[in-house]
Each structure stands twice: as C-alpha cells, then as structure tokens.
Please model this.
Amino acid sequence: MATIGNRTSLAMEMSEEERKVDDIIKKFLLNTTRLRPRLTRHKVRAAVFCGIAATVHPPKDEEAGRIPLITGSVAEFNIEPMHECFGDIDMMHHENTRLAIPRGHSPPTELPDEFHNYVQVFEIIDSHFPGYVYLGLRYILTQCSDDNTYNAVEYDRGNYFTYSEGNGEWEKHGPAVLTSEEGEISVDSVLCVRCLLWPPQAADWPARHRDYEWPDSATVNRVVSNGCDLVCVAHPMCRQHEWEGKAQWRLSFSRAEIVLINSWMPLQQIVYHLLRVFLKTAGLTESADNSGSGTLSNYHIKTLMLWACELKPRSWWTDNFSFTAICTYLLHILSQWLNEGYCQHYFITGCNLFDPNDRANQILDAEQLSKIDQEQLIKWFVGSYLQKCCQQCPLTVLRLFGDISTSEKLWTATSAVVHWRQSNVKRDSLYAFEFAQVIVLTAIFIASVSVRSYFMLMKELTKLDSGLRVYFISVICLHVARKISIEGSDKWMKVLDVLCGDLDWNISLLKTKNTSELVDFLQKSAVEHLTTFRQLQARDFGSVATIVTTDFEAMYAFKRGDYQHCLQLSTQNVRTLLYADSMTAVLLFPEFLQLLNDDIVSLTALTLIVNPECREESRNTNISQLTLSLYLMSQCQLKLRHPVTSLAQTLDYIEVAQRRRPLEDTQDQLTLKLVQQKILTHIRR
Model:
C-alpha cells in the first residue's frame, strides 16, 4: 500500500493578503466549476468516434467487430471547469471474437450479446513483472444455435498471442483525427482483449482494509463486476526484447478507474484537474497515455489521487480546506515517491509504475516538486490558470483584470467572471447541442453509415440526449435517401431494415417501392422527425434563442411544389425571427440540400469551390433560420407571381437581415444577396 503521510494540517503560514487571495481561488473554483452535463462537446466527439471506428475498420465477418469504450478524462470527469480539462479523446476497442480468462479458470458457457458466435479464449499467464502477463490460446468457443450457450474446444498450451498477429491489426495506437471549429481533435485508440472477470493479479484490492470507507462496498462490487482489459504494452525492461516485446500484455483497469473517479466529490475532481494542469504547465508530465512509462504522466497523478482518496478521511478534504494547500501537499507526496523511485500501482500489489531505467530524471523531478510551496501555487493560479479561464469572457469582464494588484480588485474581477459563467449555463448547453448536430452530420457525410455504425451511434447518442436520437434518425433517413437516389436501393436495404425496427415501418412494403417513391418516403419521414427535433429544441432552449419549428416543413413543402403552404410557413417564420437576438441554423450539407432547389445548392457549391477553407468552419456551411425563411418566402412569391408591393416588403426584410447578420457569416450574406438580386431582376422586367 502506498504512503500518503499522517500530516493533517495543510495550510502554510501566510500573510492576511495571501489568505484572502487563497480564499478567492477556492470560491472561484467552486462557483465556476459546473457539474458536467450529459451532453458536452467532448462526449459528442467520443460518441461519434465510436461509430466512425466501426466504419473505418469494417470486419470481414458482418457479425465480428470492435466494441468501443470511451475512457480517460472524457469518461472520468464529472465536472466542467472553465479551464479545459480534456486533451485528446481516449478510447479502447476490444474485438468480439477474443476473450481472456484467468489461468485455470473454466471457459464460460454464456457471454454478453456483443460477442461473436465464434470466440478465441486466452489464458492470462503471469510474467516475472507484476501487472504484465502473457496470453495463451486455450479454448475455442462456438455458440449453440438452440439456447445461445457456448461449447468449448480445448487447445494445447504453448500457443501465445503476440501483437504481430493479424497482419498488423494490433498496432498500439490507431490514428484518428476529427476537425472541428476548435481545430484538430485526435483520438488515442487502443486495441485490447476483454476479460470479464476480476484478475487474480489484483485479488488483494477488493478485500483490502480501508479505514475511511472509500470506495464503499457497493462501488467495490461494481468495479470487480466490470473485470479488466489487456492492452498490448510490454514492461519497460522488455520492450526491446525480440519475443517478450511482442508477447507481453499489460493489465488495464480503465473501467475500474471510471467508476472510482466518477464517485469522487467534485472538490476531489477539481484537485485532480488542478494537479494535471499545473504539472503540464511546469513541463513535468507527458501526454495522458496511462502506460506507466516515462518520468511522470497523468496516470501517476491519477494513482496519487486514488491513494489519497482511500487513505484520507472525508474531513481531510472538506473541513476548512484550501485547494492550493491540498495540491501542495500531494505534490510533495509525489516528490517522495519520485525520490524513492517507487509508485505503487493502485490495484496490483508490488507493481511499480516508475520506469527503473529513468532514475536520474526521477530524482531531478523529485527535487523540483519538493521546492513547490503554497505561495508558488497561488501565484501560478492567478498568473496562468486564471488567465486561461478568462479568455472566453466578454471584453467588459476582461478589462477588470487589467489591475488585480490587491485582493479586493481580484475579488471584483473574479466575481464578474463567476456572474458571467453562471448566467450562461443555458446558452452553453445550446452551443453544445448545436455542435452535436454539426459533428454527427459531418461524421455521417464523411464516413457514411453501416448497420454496425448505426447501432454504435444510436446507442451512444441516446445516452447523451433524447433529442439527438430524433436528429440522428432524421439525418440517417436523408443520408440513405441521397445515397439511394445515386446508387439504387439494393446496397441500403440492411440499413433500411434497421430503421424499420426503430420506426415501426414495414420493410416488405418499402421493398415494393421504386427508387423515386422510396426517396420521397424517406425525405418525408426525415422532415417529420426534424420537426419533432425542432420542437424539442425550442422547448429546451427557447429562453436563450428564438427557434422556429417549421423550417424543415417549409423546405419540404417547397420541394414538392406546395408553394402556398411554404409561403405561409416562411412568412410567419420571418416575422418571428427578423429582430431576434439569437437563432439557430440549418446545415448546408448534401443531406439537407436535397430538400432545396438548384439556386442555393449551386451557391453553396460555388462557395466551397472558390474557398475550400469554408469547409472547415461550420458557420460557412450553414444559414440561419431567418435567411432560409427569406429565401423560401421570396422564391414562393416569385413562383406565385405576387405583386410588386409584396416583393418590396420582402426587400425591406432582406435589408434588415443583412444589417443584423455578421459580415463573416459568408453563406448568409451571399444567400441574402442572391435573393435580393432575384427580386430586383424580376421587378425591373
């Protein structure tokens, strides 16, 4: 068991001014750190990558595949501080055709539904390094068709699973990059082998004596029931060895860590976050790879926090606490570990997370950490961390930080940040919701969709928000409609079959439709779901944005030639939106463009051809609901031969919209200009 120390008093001797600043830091962190909602940008990215992975690595056997697990910060943190607490997205994938069991354990007769009907079972065999093992092929399981149980065929021992098997499929990291408004977000994707049982190498952990009842018995039971995984990483001493470097596997407890860290108090998660940011700022940590290698990584900080949460009573964290004092104390514990060259694995007795080949750097880092005091952390927070938090604030708030030379001035500035942060909760949620629409549509457009990716995305998006489920079905309907109109329906019948299951359609009836009828049916169904989606959006975010719910219905009415109905809906929408301070948008991706006519399709295509960089900014691949409504309104007026007085009124509306839309909203401005010119040309005839 690791040593955390017996010291109970954390605060150093500080001046009255320093105490005031330290108290401001505490209040700032507590008042600006939100409990993390289910729907965030990082969670959406991670959910989408679950689906992309199923498309990027399609298995030869349709029933075989990789089962994703979102791990790392995105899965662990239940807080949302102002300072970014996420880097790359971490994911693990296990193949549903492979399974690991402890050595000597009987092969399973039943498996979760995600597993294939043909499964290789590997025994976990200890190596001479705690936490690192070998995998020996021991059984082949085949599923019985009558009762879903499995029969096992035994293999002779001695056939080891190495990374080189499978024609390079066991690379340590699978590269994946997603471009968003914030830049490129990379995914650290690690392949693993699933073990459904708690490993005997960590048998001491569940029964270990705990003075302060963290984790409690229910949490321990949940952790144990999740088992573990094995990732293709060899011990640092073995990585250059010709055979062991490919045959060793490291026990991974990512599932356990998610459960444990989710159970922390928010202030413990804030401490964990602060330690990570500080050590990264100080240049003392590598990237968050939890591989247990290098001088310091985020995994060492995680291990430090896990031990501290277990070995310290709740009162140690909560009674008259100071974030900077707790962080200073824990950094000194980490310094002691580095000086001793020993970081005890939280789950596996006798497993040292420090690389024995890196003693010189460990001693240097230990010395650096030992010199850090509370005063230094206070200065870092005010001079670095706080500045990062405030970058997103409006100019009126930022100006207050021009002079924070006294605690009173610092309090005034930070109080303004707190007020701004707390007043923008609903608006930030709307931005995350709109971001989710962009990222889901982008993924479907780029990677297309298969039965496997459909199920993955549906599962993950439904966890985040019920409205996203409705949106996802809508986009899938439009995507399949577009693909069928180009490629025919044969290739897409399996996806349609899945849609029928979710929407209670009759697949036999769909098969009787010709291509045109099938496309129209899918478009109509998509619009119905998109209208429901808009209603949910207006219900949840109508207090911070003006959202009309009939824009897609108007688009579909225009497409099928019902210009009078389209005009009625669009006119009402224009009057509702014309002076709105905030509104939502329609994305101009091919999935939605099929509901519009050639003019706006050509304009969008021309914009992207002339300036391909527009593709990388979502604001240049969408138009506001107001602009769309003005476009449809004017088109209908022209087709219905409305009088000049009616068109003149529309021109007035367009001028108002042009003034109110930012100039950098390229697609809006160009569309409004197009509409204006079409009306003027018609009037001059």
